[in-house]
Amino acid sequence: MKLICYLSNGYPSIETSVQTARDYVEAGCDIIEVDFPSSAPYLEGEYIAGRMKKALENCSDYEKYMEGIRRIKEENPNTRLILMIYENTLSEIGVDRFISFCQENGFQDMIYVGGIDPEMKKKLIEHGMKISCYIQFHMPEEEVQAAAASNGFVYMQAKPTTGNINPKFPALKNCIDHLKKLGITREIYCGVGIAAPEDIQMAREAGADGVFVGSTILKLQNDIPKMKKTIAEFKRKAL
Questions:
Q1: How many CB atoms lie within 10 A of CB 42?
Q2: Could you tell me the domains of the chain?
Q3: 231 near 24, Cβ under 8 Å?
Q4: CA angle at residue 37 from 193 to 58, to 5 degrees?
Q5: How far apart are CA 71 and CA 22, in angstroms?
Q6: How many angstroms separate the CA atoms of 207 and 172, rounded?
Q7: Which of 90, 117, 157, 158 could lock 190 by a disulfide, CB 3.0 to 4.6 Å apart?
């Protein structure tokens, strides 16, 4: 099972993010999810949203963020990157410029947040981008069907956050088993609530192909040895 570490790009600086990516890889991270900070990160909690805000205060030039991501890929050629971008950020960059950047650097996997302009998403897919679909723990039918029709990995909520549990699928394993029975053969990665080694073990035993780890790692970036130790411990549980 893959360990996916979230990189809060540009916080506190783009250069720091490039170094943090090196630290992630050295510690055993398999895949890095790297964001483009958004000025309207409506799905993020206060912690991540605050980091995005600070990043944009320090640098609002998305060309520099793209250059930083290019460097991360260049320095870590064997590590897969997943790009996370909000629709409003894509509009600021320009969809054609973003597609060119992805094609020039071999990026395909993407977490795309937004749906106001469906033509943007359609254009990304037409140019080879693989767009993930998020499914909440209570397995809303429309989200399940969207994931089945998508061309990217499935982002499955690992734990319920509202207590809203579908009695047909009371545990993560039930959710994953159902998705596979529907014929989904693409990766199913689990996130939201993955904060401790036992969470990773739970996801592995449920049949997940990977787990996202976010704020638990980000909050250790001022203590690099501890951060690396935590990532290594998480990786051992993912094996």
A1: 10
A2: 2-238 (3.20.20.70)
A3: yes
A4: 125
A5: 11
A6: 9
A7: 158
One-letter amino acid at 144 equals V
DSSP per position, 52-91: HHHHHHH---HHHHHHHHHHHHHH-TTSEEEEEEEHHHHH
Residue listed under structure tokens 């947040």: 113
Tokens read off for 156: 């499955």
Q: What is the full per-residue pLDDT of the chain (239 aa) written as tens digits?
A: 999 999 999 999 999 999 999 999 999 999 999 999 999 999 899 999 999 999 999 999 999 999 999 999 999 999 999 999 999 999 999 999 999 999 999 999 999 998 889 999 999 999 999 999 999 999 999 999 999 999 999 999 999 988 789 999 999 999 999 999 999 999 999 999 999 999 999 999 999 999 999 999 999 999 999 999 999 999 999 99
